Amino acid sequence: MATKSSSTSVQANDDTLTVCAISILAGILTNVLHEGLGHAATALVTGAKSGVLTTVAWSSDFDSRLVAAAGTLANLLAAFVFWIALRRARGRSVRLRFFLLTSLAFNLFAGTGYFFFSGVTNFGDWAMVVAGLPSHWLWRTLLTVAGIAAYYGAVLVVGIGLVRYVGVPKNEHRRLRKLTFLPYVSAILLACAGGLLNPIGMQLMWQSALPATAGGDSGLLWLRYYIPKGTIPEQPSDGIDRSYLWITVAAALSVIFIFVLGRGITLRR
User: Fold this and answer.
1) pLDDT tens for residues 232-257?
2) Is 59 a domain residue?
3) pTM of structure
4) C-alpha 265: how far from chain center
5) Could you give the CA distance from residue 187 to residue 183 in angstroms, rounded to a whole number?
6) Taking the CB of residue 13, how many other CB atoms lie within 10 A of it?
7) Which tens digits make up the pLDDT trace of 7-27?
8) What is the secondary structure of 20-37 as a DSSP string?
9) How far is Cα 113 from Cα 111, in angstroms, rounded to an integer?
């Protein structure tokens, strides 16, 4: 009894507001990388003279398969960078490591999940990439199968990172649930708020932005069941303490994200 009580008492607690703030910042970054660095920058470099960038889409007169694919490719490249950064963040604060982990998760799920989404629905970025290609049904099948395999791999990577590098033991089920559920809900609320004022129309938010977030990040809800056996933290599991710096920065950038980028920004080259 004494041993059990001692084990329970040392379990770390994580501040809800700070976890949500970190998740919102990771969500904003993932969105800007996809729409801004991916679609918008690629379009402007390869032929577009101007366009409107919002939280739900990039819109311009110029389009190409490369522009359509660039959003996903930007997320996958960012996920690789965040994975390397997370592995090298040993000894850094648990808040920073959780930010790197959440950014890795959002970018990796966005990148791999889009293959499956477009393959099944014939809608979205990768539907545009394969549109008009010979044996279109085969391309959709390949997208679907590759998406399933890649997404499952992403779930394993994020789960391992959460335990090994953030330092959340597999047996702390309550904490695992909290540190995966809160980012998921935060991402959905951010996507909804960011899309409310977009000038392109609400239909695009319901058809693309919200399903991509709710469906794409759904791996957070069940990844704890697929963390490989034998995965253990590399360092002691500290709780995520309240940080008014993270909360303030998240609040300020959320205002810009919703009321500035959400309304649309015209970019020209």
Assistant:
1) 999 877 899 999 999 999 999 999 99
2) no
3) 0.93
4) 22
5) 6
6) 11
7) 444 568 999 999 999 999 999
8) HHHHHHHHHHHHIIIIII
9) 6
